[in-house]
Amino acid sequence: MQEYRRSCPKQLKRKEMELSISFFYCMPLFDVNYSLKIGWCQSPVDLAKLTRLAGPRWIEIEATALEHNLRAVKGLLQPPTRLLAVIKADAYGAGAVEVARILLATGADYLGVTTLAEGQELRRAGITAPILLMSPLLPEELPQALTDDLTLTISSRSGAEAAAAAAATVGRQARLHLKVETGLQRTGLEPGEVVPLAREMRCWPVVQLEGIYSHLAEAAHPGAARRQMECFQRVLMELEGQQISLPLKHICNSTGLLLHPEMHLDMVRAGTLLYGHFPYQAPRRGLDLKNPWQFKARILFIHDVAAGTPVGYGGDYVVKKATRLAVIPVGYADGFALTPVSRPKDLNDLARHLVKTVLAYLGRGGGEGTAVTIAGQRAPVVGRVGMQLSIVDVGHLPEVKVGQEVQLDLRRPTASARLPRVYCREGQPYLVRTTSGEMVPVLSSAGQNLAPGAGI
């Protein structure tokens, strides 16, 4: 890839490059058995080597951007406030296992996921840091969660009793956080239920009450956030009055973290900020976040077409003049050109949706799936986007060749988990998560690991 070639001067010989590599990827906190190894020489053939491993399309994740973002967010916190890094939904598409390693090595104190499967994936990868499951589990899931030493969220009395029963069955103490319903109306104990239940649970030897939290429904609206915080604080004061101590109290998400420093408490839960995005209507607080994500592919085929030629399924698009068309190995099965559609909140929101739809129809929306970037130049996607192949008009780019790299826009929530993830440090790849989920460290031909020591 262009970045890789730029990092290796043309005059540097292969032997010299191999001798200059002195990185070692040490991971004392993790016990991970990688199933594959591959040689990687920093030379103009890097793109070919990458394709042999990852295929002709992949998502690049830059480790230094994630590290930068976490340090920037931590800089907003006052000790001893801890930071829980939210890595739900495969770390927002970036790949949960490696992102967890990066963030923990950079200073994250806790990890947060939604499902048991997400927590299990991290434990199977050898990650031993505390992990909070932020959703209630079914009773059948509880024994495995406790066996994997995952922290449970308790949102009801029945959930607490089921957790205690599972802890007695597996023979290990359950570490719990109580969830308080203060306004989101999703999951949680009603405020009046918390103190009686906590007082009772304090006598259960099979549970450890480690924390209590709530979730801001309208963090960007100060009045609504303040009402939720006041409700939460009343519960905390009642617990304190009963001499019930829960070490970790938390309510702030990314938006709350930025807008309400007085609500940081013992821990904050940061998600979208760590991945380089600012929440809607949230101030920047001086943060200069970096985007760790790039979606790339290589051109598979190029051919000439005459004016008037229909292109793609249904012949919906007809070229107006003779041009060249390039085929890229990306389609809607990968999440390309897919846009999540939510119910409009009001008439103004509906109008915005309609305008975006009309612009996309006219090819002028500038959104995902309408154009790609080749050698710094934009090229339009033409015809219908296929399941795994799409067509790009490159008639204005005469130098474009088969095998050339293309950069694409892709919404992270819609990105297929089967797209390979290539983890880089300052542009140099050091690890690949393949389509099958195998984690493949990138080695030099001398057998050295190219990943810089990250202190993990």
From TrEMBL:
It is an enzyme of class 5 (isomerase). Substrate binds at R186, M387. Keywords: Isomerase, Pyridoxal phosphate. The modification N6-(pyridoxal phosphate)lysine is found at K88. One of its GO terms (biological process) is D-alanine biosynthetic process. The active site is at K88, Y313. Its cofactor is pyridoxal 5'-phosphate. It holds the Pfam family Ala_racemase_C. Coiled coil: none annotated. This is Alanine racemase. It comes from Neomoorella glycerini.
